[in-house]
Amino acid sequence: MHEKAKTRVLLADDHALVRRGVRLILESEPDLDVVAEAGDGAEAIEMARAEAPDLAILDIAMPRLTGLQAARELSRQQPDMRILMLTMYDNEQYFFEALKAGAAGYVLKSVADRDLVEACRAAMRDEPFLYPGAITALIRDHLERAREGERPPARAITDREEEILKLVAEGHTSKEIAGILFISAKTVERHRANLLQKLGLKDRLELTRYAIRAGLIEP
User: Fold this and answer.
1) How far is Cα 30 from Cα 37, in angstroms, rounded to an integer?
2) Which residues, other chains included, contact 8 with Cβ-Cβ below 8 Å and sequence gap of 6+?
3) Position 1 pLDDT exceeds 50
């Protein structure tokens, strides 16, 4: 009987030390193989295109593109690939955003040694992986929605505008942003102008403050 194919994993985190630790956890398992590493969300998209992994493990807080933004793009580009979010934050908002972005699970870094392998296997079986706090959050959210008669919260800006907002706030030029997002510089400028108008902001400094408040970049 031939050996079962290993799950090919892409690992994205902007801290090399975290990547090394996670790689050690995964590669001690016979069915998991880390085939690519990325240091930010944009690089994760490039590596996923090049390597076509079965599973991407994405840190939420990364430069250029967050893990959530990368997850949205990867869900569009490679719908068959499974995605897990890795985070330091036990944060309900991030958790729900992760589910909306197409992630199969949400793993806290503090307990990665306990949960991550199980989460990888659950994702490959097409089962969601939820840590205990997330289940509580889901139930509470469901009850609140039922009480208030299902009000989906309106988001002021689109996913693409959010990606551009983060990159502008990090100091990237329109040309650099165009390269990272595979769009034209002209399109970037149009989105940027829309953003300022929608949010009532006048310059990059105000955009940056907004991006910090929205949790897109770390202060």
Assistant:
1) 19
2) 33, 35, 51, 52, 53, 54, 55
3) no
In a domain, residue 150? The reply is no
Question: What is the rounded end-to-end Cα distance, in angstroms, of the chain?
Answer: 54
How many helices (H) and strands (E) in the chain?
A: 10, 5
| Cβ(9)–Cβ(54) below 8 Å | yes
* Mean pLDDT across the chain: 86
Residues in Cβ contact with 101 at an 8 Å cutoff, skipping those fewer than 6 apart: 68, 69, 71, 72, 75, 83
- Give how far Cα 166 sits from Cα of 56, 58, 129, 216, Å: 21, 17, 28, 6
Q: Rounded to the nearest 10 degrees, how much is the dihedral formed by the CA atoms of 87, 115, 7, 64?
A: 0
Above 80 in pLDDT, residue 112?
yes
Tell me the residue range of the domain where 58 lies.
7-145
Nearest of 94, 104, 116 to residue 74 by alpha carbon? 104
Same-domain check for residues 189 and 94: no
Select from 85, 112, 145 the last residue of a domain.
145
φ, ψ at 33 (rounded to 5°): -140, 115
Note the pTM of the prediction, 2 decimals.
0.71
Q: Report the alpha-carbon distance of residue 213 to residue 91 in Å, rounded.
A: 15
